[in-house]
Amino acid sequence: xxxxxxxxxxxxxxxxxxxxxxIILSGEHAVVYGAPALAVAVAIYTEVWxxxxxxxxxxxxxxxxxxxxxxxxxxxxxxxxxxxxxxFEAFLRGEMKVQQILQRPDDLIVYxxxxxxxxxxxxxKSPGHCLPVPGQLGGTSALPLGAGMGSSAxxxxxxxxxxxxxxxxxxSTEERFEWVRFxxxxxxxxxxxxxxxxxxxxxxxxxxxxxxxxxxxxxxHGLWHGDGWYWVLHGKPASSTGECVAAVREAHGxxxxxxxxxxxxxxxxxxxxxxxxxxxxSLRENHRLLSRIGVVPEAAxxxxxxxxxxxxxxxxxxxxxxxxEHGGVILVHQPExxxxxxxxxxxxxxxxxxxxxAPTGAxxxxxx
Length: 368
Known about the structure:
By secondary structure, the protein is an alpha+beta fold. The protein folds into 2 domains: 15-216 and 358-364, Ribosomal Protein S5, domain 2 (2-Layer Sandwich); 227-354, 2-Layer Sandwich (Alpha-Beta Plaits). 38% of the residues lie in helices and 20% in strands. The chain is built from 11 helices and 12 strands. Strands 1, 2, 3, 4, 5, 6, 7 and 12 form an 8-stranded mixed beta sheet that branches. It has a 4-stranded antiparallel beta sheet with strand order 9-10-8-11. β3 (58-63) and β4 (70-73) form a beta hairpin. α4 packs across α5 and α8 (256-275) packs antiparallel against α9 (280-292). The termini are close together.
């Protein structure tokens, strides 16, 4: 099966780069407390492009699905980045909510560009002049926004690779990982290692603390090819990742036994994948734990119950939500494809597809 297509709105004469999304298989929330998390890069892509325009004195953003676009004067970009750094510091002091740091969706992308500009000269400028040339910086994405599929990390990674390549100053995967985490802190309050690892390196990854590993999942496993594995978009959560993390910390942050239970569940799930044995029990247990910490909305829980009644297992794959009905993306394991088809016939309003893992991370050019 080919990758899910990115909407065809990119100008043909522009330079471009892409990055995959991600799905957390196990360990969301628990990773904050030192437990491991497993994730895969998913072959649903963000593309970012740049096209110089002269004469002009600014950068025009054109990000489909994200915003209506904005104009950033070149002369103000240095102050722009500094102001966002100050807003983040205000958030750390408790003077501002995380969702107030960025004033426009495009701000995160332009902040990424200016962060890179402080380290490397931009195209068409001599050393010491770090502002970008005037032009259009745009993109489009097949990833749903705010649903737990790594849309913000994906757009940051694609922007980085685009400008690195234009400058012929490529970073290592490790450097990209660290820079995605740094920039994404503006979106969530803290840059997540899971998202950054998945979108920059691709494939499957286990994250625990500062350590990252590649699970030894057999190459013929159905997970790699969407055989028995699916994602279902159960609406956009009403609460942000930052809100969910804060609520869970307040209610359960000190419950070490709970987080040890999450760790045991993730270890069992990984062992099942590596042995190519049934992960149904560990997936169902993971759902019970997520329900216990209050991040599985009732409507999402009802859908997951339907999956279980049909012989499968399912769980939310991101922060979930502490209010409303929608839980974001849901991972489903249903070994019998006809049963999955019948289940989803009863939910025509939900977007879903077999899970296809992206084997590589952010790269220059269009996704293959």
